[in-house]
Amino acid sequence: MNHNELAQELAEFWLPTLVDRDWEGRLEVLNEIHAQLYQDLPTQEEYDSIASRFVAAVIEHLGTPPICDKAQAQIYATSAEQGHWSAAFAWQYARQGDTASSPQDSVGKNERRRWPRQWVDKLTQAWVEDATIRCRLIDLSKGGARIATLGGANPPAPGSAIHICVPEDQIREAVVVFSKHDRAGLQFAGTS
Q: Is 174 helix (H, G, I), strand (E, B) or coil?
């Protein structure tokens, strides 16, 4: 049985338990299931693949309703489906009061940074010490980047050393220069 088939089978098995609960209740049950999967699966790669596909299948079986609360956003953020991640990010972005009407509005004429920023909007991963952070790369420049964490995770604290995967699968070393709510600004190593 491949990972997709196992994820679908798990979703069908757990759906009766999840369907009558609110999103907070679903999150609690999913956290318990994930803890068990983590213990039962032999590798981290298998766990990551199956757990995220399982969440995607559950969301699909529930009809992919629009996100309306934090627990639901946390569930969507752990899905293997980019559309679910994007919905979680958009909901969190709107809730943080970030009201720029378009990506370009936040990178306007009055930009004072040393290098111009490019809007990226890419799902990625970052690493702080031994912890993996699922995040969205919001913008990128020669000297740094801005990220948003997903699933209610706090961003790393200012001064933290971080490695982040940027487009074209490059891993860049950086330091966190600011963090607020679910956002962090990064300065790449060797730039100042």
A: strand
